[in-house]
Amino acid sequence: xxxxxxxxxxxxxxxxxxxxxxxxxxxxxxxxxxxxxxxxxxxxxxxxxxxxxxxxxxxxxxxxxxxxxxxxxxxxxxxxxxxxxxxxxxxxxxxxxxxxxxxxxxxxxxxxxxxxxxxxxxxxxxxxxxxxxxxxxxxxxxxxxxxxxxxxxxxxxxxxxxxxxxxxxxxxxxxxxxxxxxxxxxxxxxxxxxxxxxxxxxxxxxxxxxxxxxxxxxxxxxxxxxxxxxxxxxxxxxxxxxxxxxxxxxxxxxxxxxxxxxxxxxxxxxxxxxxxxxxxxxxxxxxxxxxxxxxxxxxxxxxxxxxxxxxxxxxxxxxxxxxxxxxxxxxxxxxxxxxxxxxxxxxxxxxxxxxxxxxxxxxxxxxxxxxxxxxxxxxxxxxxxxxxxxxxxxxxxxxxxxxxxxxxxxxxxxxxxxxxxxxxxxxxxxxxxxxxxxxxxxxxxxxxxxxxxxxxxxxxxxxxxxxxxxxxxxxxxxxxxxxxxxxxxxxxxxxxxxxxxxxxxxxxxxxxxxxxxxxxxxxxxxxxxxxxxxxxxxxxxxxxxxxxxxxxxxxxxxxxxxxxxxxxxxxxxxxxxxxxxxxxxxxxxxxxxxxxxxxxxxxxxxxxxxxxxxxxxxxxxxxxxxxxxxxxxxxxxxxxxxxxxxxxxxxxxxxxxxxxxxxxxxxxxxxxxxxxxxxxxxxxxxxxxxxxxxxxxxxxxxxxxxxxxxxxxxxxxxxxxxxxxxxxxxxxxxxxxxxxxxxxxxxxxxxxxxxxxxxxxxxxxxxxxxxxxxxxxxxxxxxxxxxxxxxxxxxxxxxxxxxxxxxxxxxxxxxxxxxxxxxxxxxxxxxxxxxxxxxxxxxxxxxxxxxxxxxxxxxxxxxxxxxxxxxxxxxxxxxxxxxxxxxxxxxxxxxxxxxxxxxxxxxxxxxxxxxxxxxxxxxxxxxxxxxxxxxxxxxxxxxxxxxxxxxxxxxxxxxxxxxxxxxxxxxxxxxxxxxxxxxxxxxxxxxxxxxxxxxxxxxxxxxxxxx
Length: 1011
What we know:
Elements: H1 8-17, H2 21-34, H3 39-51, H4 55-65, H5 72-85, H6 92-101, H7 104-116, H8 120-133, H9 138-149, H10 160-167, H11 174-186, H12 190-203, H13 208-220, H14 224-237, H15 242-253, H16 258-270, H17 276-288, H18 292-305, H19 310-322, H20 326-340, H21 348-359, H22 364-380, H23 389-395, H24 397-409, H25 424-439, H26 444-457, H27 462-471, H28 476-488, H29 492-505, H30 513-525, H31 529-540, H32 558-574, H33 578-591, H34 598-611, H35 615-623, H36 632-646, H37 650-663, H38 667-677, H39 683-693, H40 698-710, H41 714-724, H42 731-746, H43 754-763, H44 771-781, H45 784-794, H46 801-813, H47 830-836, H48 843-849, H49 852-864, H50 868-879, H51 888-905, H52 908-921, H53 926-938, H54 942-955, H55 961-973, H56 977-990, H57 995-1010
């Protein structure tokens, strides 16, 4: 080996692979000063010189190296490659002659040369010949691993690790370690990649590629803080490192900071090149700042240079649309569609068509279909890309945010009725925003739109709004959305405070229709009818409130215009102005006759009729709302309540829900009917019918499983969820999986879930990154190492974060699932009992609140304080409570602790009842089996005790050596020596330091077998 091979060569190879030829050249020159005239460094210097375009200088160096035995073949190959670049094909015969007589080192450098040039077939052929000459060559095996890893056929890639492991004989082989790291990154085993990076950095702190590759791992893990820290660390060593500078640029640009956009605009203006690409980039930056006229000039200039420039054509159409030059935009778009046929489909075309359609008042279904097509084409380009800089570039956040904005702009006043299936536009927006937020969690506008979508879905939006406020508190839209959240939660004063905060940020916000509508609603809900009516009358007379408005800043949707009339009607009615309320409502009905929102006004008319006690008129109006109307379900539900509460007719009440189910068959309407039948115990059949209607709906499956659990039909609940888990993993899928795990735990079949994880990973390999999947894995493992590894990946998620953190805390506090306060199986540490004496529990408060968790903690505290009678009273109270999904674990712990007390006092009859209750509700309760085994062992019933300890060992997943010890001991007592030896080995495999089982049981069992 060359003296420079161990450190300098991996560094130079890294730069050559990344196409940083100047960095490779400088590294070779710098090391030649240390290793004077080293042939390998000279070759790489010439190679980098060639790739920079200095062919003649490179040729002279290659000619001088052709006589070197190790470099003859690669020099000849490089010489031919260089001559071909200068349109000559000489020396091919000489290369073939050199190849037939080359040694293993010459073949190695030739393979390396071809591999760097991405000529994989030639590289593979050379390394194959080399390994025939030297089968165990570490360098050859490592290079073979690299070639296999970067091959086009994915089937061969798993073999790369075998070659790396065979070649890496010590920690100093940087090229091999880098290969292993690259392999683990490709297989998404980020933790393994980080371990190797730390190994390289520990031995070679100045080896920058290891830091850069570690930075890349953190990017794939979306850990931006660590990524930024590593980029800064690299720049401390080399202030001109392009990768680190690029990463810091990406981090800054992903925030969509207006100041950065302005700075980039100035920079691009200074670029001397006037190519279409540069001009289009300037146009794009200007359009992002809403400077569409200037952007249009840039795109027009680019089209003069290249009339078929795709970016320029797309930009031109977009600018024309945003400036409302619709006729010219339509003409340009038609021309672009003709040009596009030769290039293939692009996501921009359907989006531009949707923009044009929306501005020309095209049908909403047409616009929605175009937006769906645009999204599908856009996401199809991302498939197969690992998360990184290229992924973020291809993601194009502005494109996706525009689609979401188009979905939301016409639905400003939409409210999702609880239990109602979300419409397509809302589900589509949610899918897009979840992708955006996962990719760029810190961007203000992405967090704002995510909060908006979550709010419309009826989910928690506060987390995203908090992120928005932390990033930029001067965005009035954030304060307006926060006001809507407070209003929906009934916090009217907080809503008004948020509106005031919005005004303090931007005084012009007072002129917005949405601001005044929110303010009026808050005043109305808080009972300030006079000011509410005054505000609503001002809102009704605002520009755009009486008829559709034009322009993006003044856009007011029909639903919002109808809402202001509805709110004014309600305010007048509550203020006793019935005739005025009726007049306003009739005016609105005439104004919005024939629009999709007409039925909302009819529902308000029903409320006025009910206020007059004109029930029959209300029912007639509700009967006139047809199944084709969006408010049909609400109308029938209102009619059902009238029949039940006003006419006390249960038969007609049920009939209303039957009509909903017949007219709009689907899982949601079946669930409504099931809920209506719940009081008369006929719900189960309708849930099953709902599931038959939509077998892919995991939420319906979860609802049905919930009902079956209440009926204690565990097997049926398991079958329902198993069927749901056969489909493609999704957000609802993982909720069903978590419920499935709980059922398997209750029925003692937790081992069966392995097949579900395997099938999930096989169906969608990327599911291993999903927070829901990792939560389920953590729930399955429970043990500290594996569980916390998976739960840590889920704790940053909005949906799964809270349960993941809760589970992490419980695991850390009680990794062995011991009975806290129990002393029969294992006496607690003295310091814990001493600490508990410092706490004083206000048990009277717990009695008033009657929370199971509070009662249990109080009882455990009394046990630690040695106040056993008090603790027993709490536990007796808990053991008699009815179990539900929310309290079952607390009640199980209470029964186990009470059983522990009874065992100490010899009251075994009560113990049996408590343990039976635990096992009846949770067949995986290992502690209950352990207590049973202890009782039988005390009665010298070793065979029966062994059966109980066997169940405890199984359901504790063979993780507790103390249980294994008791099982092996009872096997030994009933002369089942073979099983005793097996259990001893299982314990020692996990805990080699557990010498007690080896000395006391294993030796005796083995001796008994020999006898």
